[in-house]
């Protein structure tokens, strides 16, 4: 049931302004407008952080609405690094779904929308569907996967990887949440199963798998030949000294190849070419300035780096859509500029009846820490929904509210709260901001405003560490001392020798210098610091020193994984026996416990 009274959205091209949408009211308005529309919605933000936040909020307010996110590469223009495979996976999956969606939302930072892309026919015509019972030639499949950019590995962990073990093929398709295991009987697909990349255990059976290309450019022989021919035509350089040219000729995908995508094709596309014709646009304030700033950065980096004869660069206009061209394309669709700030009412300008929540933060050192929240709930006549980050955080918040003699009802979603009648409710949602409406009188209070920045910082920290060993993670170079043992995730235990400044392809960069057995040295870019961890085993003096290229480290990792599974089995057995045993019931301490706490 819609909460806001939305103004009429014209199907004709033109611009409207919506204002006074503070906090999460902004995403609520966009979610309800997109849900009610009989067309697709493009949402443009000024930066990646806003895009990620709005994606989460839209999914909360409209759980049945398809919400896609087209993320940025997270590399600088003309960078020497390629985007992470998980980013490429999400981008390709979003592009593939766009033409088939008549209803939904695509959230994109304006700077990402300026990138030129591979032609629509390449990304949409390069998929492959595998079905149970289908005939499959293993060698032909392997060749096709490699030509599509998939990497052959020993064990599949990440998007774009595959391996072949006899009659089993493990692969992690782009855009998929889980990898798949193909079990062959002779030359026929007998079963298809998802599996856990951490434990490598099979999970559920499926009937079919769709494979999307692992790169945003082709690696087939014909396209590589076209790339090399156009490289020679475009650049008056000695291609024999160009790492990009030589790597691609040798079957290696060079880092930073994404900034040469136009050389693979006769023509490129833009994001707008993938969108349905009947599209409406929502944009946030500041996208024009963000686009101009981005183009200034592109020009500056082009001028700084174009002097390298071994790495000639394509002009900015061949890689990025000019700002004026981008906004000219937007004029072809109806567009709403939605702002948290107030606007003057008038033709095409709508002011919403919403307010900003007052400061409800908990004052831990005050005599009454919850005074602000208590006063707000006493004065506010409407219904209130609290949100917490997780089930555990929800229990913490419930205990906190219990001090005010408040017992909110637990609901599953925003829609359940809106359709219900309870004055107070609580649910799980990763929101950073709340909302306060006058008509109807509704308030949404996220835990972030209550606890300050701690909740948001914790979520960002957990996302960065990705569930690894937080105690061993190196967050800053100052944590390392020369001679200290460190662990590289792929190469094992070495010794940190300090920083080294090296020139790579005429570009100066800093590297961590690691020593290994037999006087071998490994140079790790500072940007890859996340691959290094402190050694937390025995004393530094007795720490091992592995040999580069040996199987010692891989065997140690496999053995450790087996031991972890053994310990987990023992713990399960202990807890099972403990659960079956009758415990001792202590008497209720009642007031004594509350006094001591």
From TrEMBL:
<dbReference type="GO" id="GO:0003677">
    <property type="term" value="F:DNA binding"/>
</dbReference>
<keyword id="KW-0067">ATP-binding</keyword>
<dbReference type="InterPro" id="IPR027417">
    <property type="entry name" value="P-loop_NTPase"/>
</dbReference>
<dbReference type="InterPro" id="IPR003711">
    <property type="entry name" value="CarD-like/TRCF_RID"/>
</dbReference>
<feature type="domain" description="CarD-like/TRCF RNAP-interacting">
    <location>
        <begin position="479"/>
        <end position="576"/>
    </location>
</feature>
<dbReference type="GO" id="GO:0006289">
    <property type="term" value="P:nucleotide-excision repair"/>
</dbReference>
<dbReference type="InterPro" id="IPR004807">
    <property type="entry name" value="UvrB"/>
</dbReference>
<dbReference type="GO" id="GO:0009380">
    <property type="term" value="C:excinuclease repair complex"/>
</dbReference>
<dbReference type="GO" id="GO:0005524">
    <property type="term" value="F:ATP binding"/>
</dbReference>
<dbReference type="InterPro" id="IPR041471">
    <property type="entry name" value="UvrB_inter"/>
</dbReference>
<protein>
    <submittedName>
        <fullName>Transcription-repair coupling factor</fullName>
    </submittedName>
</protein>
<dbReference type="GO" id="GO:0016887">
    <property type="term" value="F:ATP hydrolysis activity"/>
</dbReference>
<keyword id="KW-0547">Nucleotide-binding</keyword>
<dbReference type="Pfam" id="PF21132">
    <property type="entry name" value="MFD_D3"/>
</dbReference>
<dbReference type="InterPro" id="IPR036101">
    <property type="entry name" value="CarD-like/TRCF_RID_sf"/>
</dbReference>
<dbReference type="Pfam" id="PF02559">
    <property type="entry name" value="CarD_TRCF_RID"/>
</dbReference>
<dbReference type="InterPro" id="IPR048635">
    <property type="entry name" value="MFD_D3"/>
</dbReference>
<dbReference type="Pfam" id="PF17757">
    <property type="entry name" value="UvrB_inter"/>
</dbReference>
């Amino acid at each position: 049931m819609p909460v806001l009274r939305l103004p009429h959205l014209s199907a004709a091209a033109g611009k409207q302004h919506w204002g006074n949408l503070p906090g999460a009211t902004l995403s609520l308005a966009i979610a309800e407008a997109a849900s009610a529309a009989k067309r697709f919605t493009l949402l443009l933000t000024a930066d990646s952080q806003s895009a990620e936040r709005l994606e989460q909020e839209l999914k909360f307010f409209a759980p049945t609405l398809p919400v896609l996110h087209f993320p940025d590469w997270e590399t600088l223009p003309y960078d020497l690094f390629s985007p992470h495979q998980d980013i490429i996976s999400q981008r390709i999956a979003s592009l593939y779904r766009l033409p088939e969606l008549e209803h939904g939302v695509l959230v994109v930072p304006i700077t990402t929308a300026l990138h030129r892309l591979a032609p629509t026919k390449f990304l949409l015509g390069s998929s492959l569907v595998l079905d149970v019972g289908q005939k499959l030639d293993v060698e032909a499949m392997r060749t096709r996967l490699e030509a599509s950019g998939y990497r052959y590995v020993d064990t599949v962990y990440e998007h774009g990887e595959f391996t072949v073990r006899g009659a089993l093929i493990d692969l992690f398709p782009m855009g998929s949440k889980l990898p798949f295991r193909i079990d062959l009987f002779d030359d026929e697909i007998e079963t298809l199963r998802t599996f856990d990349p951490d434990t490598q255990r099979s999970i559920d059976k499926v009937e079919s798998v769709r494979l999307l290309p692992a790169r945003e450019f082709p690696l087939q022989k014909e396209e590589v030949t076209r790339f090399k021919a156009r490289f020679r035509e475009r650049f008056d350089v000695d291609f024999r000294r160009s790492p990009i040219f030589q790597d691609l000729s040798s079957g290696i995908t060079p880092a930073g190849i994404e900034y040469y995508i136009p050389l693979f094709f006769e023509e490129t596309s833009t994001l707008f070419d993938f969108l349905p014709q009947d599209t409406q646009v929502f944009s946030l304030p500041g996208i024009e300035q963000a686009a101009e700033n981005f183009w200034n950065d592109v020009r500056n980096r082009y001028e700084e780096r174009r002097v390298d004869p071994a790495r000639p660069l394509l002009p900015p206009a061949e890689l990025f859509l000019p700002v004026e061209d981008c906004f000219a394309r937007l004029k072809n669709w109806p567009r709403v500029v939605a702002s948290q700030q107030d606007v003057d009412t008038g033709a095409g300008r709508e002011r919403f009846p919403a307010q900003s929540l007052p400061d409800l933060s908990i004052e831990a050192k005050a005599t009454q820490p919850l005074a602000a929240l208590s006063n707000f709930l006493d004065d506010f006549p409407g219904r209130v929904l609290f949100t917490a980050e997780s089930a555990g955080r929800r229990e913490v918040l419930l205990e906190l509210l219990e001090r005010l003699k408040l017992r909110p009802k637990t609901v599953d979603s925003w829609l359940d709260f809106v359709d219900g009648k309870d004055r107070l409710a609580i649910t799980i949602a990763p929101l950073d901001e709340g909302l306060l409406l006058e008509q109807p009188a509704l308030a949404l209070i996220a835990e972030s405003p209550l606890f300050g920045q701690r909740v948001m910082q914790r979520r960002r920290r957990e996302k960065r560490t990705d569930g690894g060993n937080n105690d061993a993670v190196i967050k800053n170079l100052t944590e390392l001392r020369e001679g200290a043992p460190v662990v590289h995730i792929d190469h094992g235990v070495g010794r940190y020798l300090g920083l080294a400044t090296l020139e790579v392809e005429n570009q100066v960069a800093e590297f961590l210098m690691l020593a290994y057995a037999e006087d071998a040295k490994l140079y790790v870019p500072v940007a890859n610091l996340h691959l290094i961890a402190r050694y937390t085993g025995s004393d530094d003096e007795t720490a091992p020193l592995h040999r580069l290229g040996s199987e010692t480290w891989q065997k140690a990792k496999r053995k450790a994984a087996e031991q972890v599974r053994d310990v987990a089995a023992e713990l399960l057995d202990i807890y099972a026996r403990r659960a079956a045993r009758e415990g001792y019931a202590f008497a209720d301490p009642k007031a004594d416990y509350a006094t001591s706490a």
